[in-house]
Specification:
This protein is of the alpha+beta class. It has helices at residues 3-9, 21-37, 47-54, 59-100, 105-120, 148-151, 160-168, 187-196, 228-260, 264-290, 295-306, 318-327, 361-401, 407-416, 439-459, 483-498, 518-536, 552-556, 562-580, 584-593, 598-605, 609-623, 630-650, and strands at residues 124-131, 136-143, 154-156, 172-174, 200-208, 211-220, 309-313, 331-333, 336-343, 346-354, 425-432, 463-467, 470-476, 502-506, 543-545. The longest helix has 42 residues, at 59-100. The two termini are 68 Å apart.
């Protein structure tokens, strides 16, 4: 057998020396670890299994290879996703850094187009700019283009996909350019596109305030569907390109002023100070982003630069916030300045400069740049959070469906998420109880519930997933906590987060989930039964476990905890009889059997009626004053009968 052959499929010969299960799994994983280490393609992961089948290896060995292959492909997919997100953020940050030290506009625009083409994986990327004199747009930068006529195209307003983007100031995408009739086709444009061989085209506007100054494109020479994330990414590059052009215009204006104004020395000092300050601001923001700073770090840095108090908030006055978002500039509101934080048309919040009514244009632009950097950070944080939430949901789905029964792999997956499947947990079923106006509002409310539950699971080292029109959570239970208390706290927390009533049903505590993953599904069904019971009892917005429903809990509990019900109901009387050798249980049996008549009870027990009264008084002190109420009496009688049945079974 060759060395390559051994690396991919080599393992102990059938009938050789026995190995432990752990060593077999490790041997099965070895070829896939080697493939991961050298960054092999996905197709290469089939080779170890194919070789093992060709060599006639045992079914157990092939099954071990298949399991190891599945895990390795998951790891490879996760690594590729992380590398892609890191590459996107790195490119955006590098571009922001280029913008901070802008010297050559063409170089920055070329870098933006090159990075957009590379990250979106398209054949061609190009950027067109508006020509105010002629009223159309012209090609400024192209990357990957091979056709001279295409590189010299000019697009009138509304002509071609780019003209439509420039006219409407909205992104447009077409899977097949020549079959798309949403825009006006012209002979010149169609000929240029045909020369280049383009089929799928995505275009996003470059805007300064409410003005469209150009369009950034990514295109392929084959049919392709551009995803929402790719459109947002190209939109971020377009924002940086517009900022680069805006900054270049500022520099041009500065140079013109230096040559035109008579007081050259004073103006030179003033404008030089402005440029240095702007460059310093951009350098500081870029450095902060590159070293992993957060939204509030940006606000703190801008507070120091502007000598004021800058805060990030999701709740700002609606009218100035909408004006800032629409115009792309910071807007004065009373004594404050508000800069909208937006990305791809979505409003994420605002940066607010407090109590600083006087703001020169450079400081205003600094606040606007900080808002743009803040939007990039929020998008990056959201992307990372959504990825982690999806992974948590996938693990809980696997536990609920009992798809993965390998305890070691389950523990490893949970550990990567900060969860411990060996700890005691409670499964909680949560559902919204507020009425929804329509299907869209109901779907949005469910998404908010899932998001709030995922955040709670992350902070509590648990798991969460969307399920059956609601949300299911798996949360650890501390020694000082009960399932009921955890359910009520969770209902309150989620209700506050989504601003609607949330009802939560909890299972009894469950253990050893990695060894017995099917326990999770049974516990979830118990939690759902508790949830349904709460809603039937009119306790919407509350949380409870099976133990809170008395003998009804026996019907709700998945494991029918009869001993627990007896203990909770008459355990103190049982313990008293065992310690003192009394007959309180026998007296209770006779009392209920006689229709709760002390006179008939004393006849049945052959004791004095005062003895019966004394015993019943003792029962009242042990069980509480309401022990003879109809509901309590029913539970006590059921517990007495179950106690007798369990005693007869033991005997």
């Amino acid at each position: 057998m060759s060395s390559d052959h051994t690396q991919l499929g080599g393992h102990p010969q059938p009938g050789g020396h026995p190995h432990s299960a752990e060593r077999s799994v490790a041997s099965a994983e070895a070829p896939f670890l080697a493939l991961l280490a050298r960054g092999a393609s996905a197709d290469a992961y089939e080779q170890p299994v194919l070789i093992a089948r060709a060599e006639g290896r045992s079914a157990e060995w092939i099954a071990a290879l298949e399991a190891a292959k599945t895990v390795a492909l998951c790891v490879r997919s996760e690594l590729e996703g992380r590398r892609r997100r890191e590459a996107e953020l790195s490119a955006l940050f590098e571009t922001a850094h280029d913008l901070a030290g802008l010297r050559d506009l063409d170089a920055v625009l070329r870098a933006i187009v090159q990075r957009a083409r590379s990250l979106l994986g398209t054949d061609v990327a190009y950027l067109s700019l508006h020509d105010p004199a002629r009223g159309d747009t012209y090609m400024r930068v192209t990357e990957g283009s091979v056709a001279a006529r295409f590189q010299q195209l000019r697009l009138g307003m509304g002509e071609g996909l780019g003209g439509l983007v420039a006219q409407t100031a909205r992104p447009y995408v077409t899977d097949d350019y020549f079959k798309d009739d949403r825009f006006r086709h012209t002979l010149a444009i169609d000929s240029g596109v045909r020369d280049e061989g383009l089929v799928a085209i995505l275009g996003v506007p470059l805007t300064l305030g409410h003005r469209v100054i150009g369009v950034l494109f990514a295109a392929d020479r084959r049919a392709r569907v551009f995803e929402r994330e790719q459109i947002a990414l190209l939109g971020s590059f377009a924002a940086l390109a517009a900022a680069a052009i805006d900054t270049a215009n500022l520099l041009t204006e500065t140079r013109s002023a230096l040559t035109e104004l008579e007081r050259a020395n004073e103006i030179i000092r003033d404008r030089s100070g402005v440029i240095e300050r702007a460059s310093d601001v951009h350098d500081r923001l870029a450095e902060l982003v590159l070293r992993g700073g957060g939204v509030h770090d940006v606000a703190a840095a801008v507070s120091e630069i502007l000598d004021g108090t800058v805060e990030f908030t999701e709740l700002a006055p609606a009218e100035p916030l909408e004006t800032s978002r629409a115009e792309g500039h910071a807007v004065r509101h009373r004594d404050d300045w508000i800069a909208a934080v937006a990305a791809g048309g979505e409003l994420l919040g605002a940066l607010v400069l407090r109590g600083h009514p006087g703001l020169d244009p450079v400081d205003q632009r600094t606040l606007e740049r900080a808002a743009m950097v803040t939007s990039l950070l929020l998008l990056a944080r959201r992307s990372a959070a959504e990825a982690e939430q999806r992974v948590r949901g996938e693990l809980l789905d696997d536990l609920l469906d009992a798809r993965d029964r390998d305890p070691r792999l389950l523990r490893e997956r949970a550990a990567r998420l900060g969860a411990d499947l060996d700890a005691t947990h409670v499964v909680l079923a949560a559902r919204l109880d507020g009425p929804a106006a329509d299907a869209d509002q109901e779907a949005a409310a469910r998404r908010r519930l899932w998001s709030a539950a995922s955040h709670l699971a992350t902070t509590r080292h648990g798991l969460a997933a969307a399920r059956d029109g609601g949300t299911v959570l798996l949360l650890p239970l501390t020694d000082k906590d009960t399932a009921t208390e955890l359910a009520r706290r969770t209902a309150g927390h989620l209700g506050t987060a989504v601003h609607e009533a949330v009802t939560v049903g909890a299972s009894a505590p469950v253990r050893d989930l990695a060894v017995h993953p099917d326990t999770v599904a049974a516990a979830y069904e118990e939690g759902r039964r508790c949830l349904d019971a709460l809603r039937l009892l009119g306790r919407s917005g509350d949380g409870a476990a099976a133990e809170d429903f008395g003998f009804l809990g026996l019907l709700l509990a998945g494991d029918r905890d009869i001993a627990g019900f007896v203990e909770r109901t008459i355990g103190r009387v049982v313990a008293y009889d065992e310690r003192r050798g009394t007959d309180l249980l026998r007296t209770l049996d006779a009392y209920f059997a006689s229709g709760m008549s002390p006179a008939r009870t004393k006849d049945d027990l052959h004791v004095h009626v005062n003895t019966v009264a004394q015993r019943l008084e003792r029962v009242g002190r042990l069980l509480g004053e309401d022990w003879q109420s109809p509901a309590r009496a029913l539970e006590i009688q059921l517990a007495l009968r179950l106690h007798r049945l369990s005693a007869s079974v033991r005997n």
